[in-house]
Amino acid sequence: MSVSDPGELQLIADSLRTAMTGASGAKLDAALTELGWLDMLAEIPESAIPLVFQLLGETGAHAPVLNDVVLCAAGSPGGGTVPLPYAGGSWVVWARSDDTSTALDADLPIHRTSAGKPVPLGQGRAALGWWLVGTSRAMLSLARQHALDRVQFGRPLASFQAVRHRLAETLVAIEGAEATLQAATDEPDELACLLAKAAAGQAALTAARHCQQVLGGIGFTAEHRLHQHIKRALVLDGLLGSSRELTRAAGKAVRERGFAPRLAHL
User: What are the Acyl-CoA dehydrogenase/oxidase C-terminal domain coordinates in residue numbering (predicted)?
Assistant: First the structure.
């Protein structure tokens, strides 16, 4: 498989999107394995991680692929589960089960567990960042379409300056987070991945706030998909350190080094 072949990558992306929109739960897990997710993670992680995790966010699907990323970075490829730190000092593990459990959410089978052995978290943070960017773009798309379709006072909602500013600020936050993630992907570094995850988490929270305001009351309803993306963003932001926690950690790292390292060459 070659990352230099855009046509092949597009075919893979189309197959992944079809799988994520047509299957869920264990069926989606099996579909991703059949499509060669683990092989892509081992051979072309710089392309596979952004592609798969952004699609998870955009489609609203969910799969335990974060386990694979962290295990691969820890030198234990092949799948499985690994305890991961969650905001608040507790640890969680992603595991599907048909039994009633203490999962944080039915759509996100994340269970609290005892702390595991320390593992490298840079790649996992970058992967979560791409997932957050994907779900942020999904929220922006929902809000944008609503603004175009909704008419108030005889004018499309999108014609009001306040609405346009909310959508523009959301887009700027998402594009900035994606640029930070791309820099961390091009030159992997623990601090770069930490900052990228923090930027993606902040962008997702910004998207959730602004898009909810644009959608108004309909965004609160169970029938609308926005609440699913907001809930997803809040959970993913907390995994491997929230945006606030990681920002503080980055400041501490800079103080200890005595200088701010160059993370991107402009």
Answer: 121-243
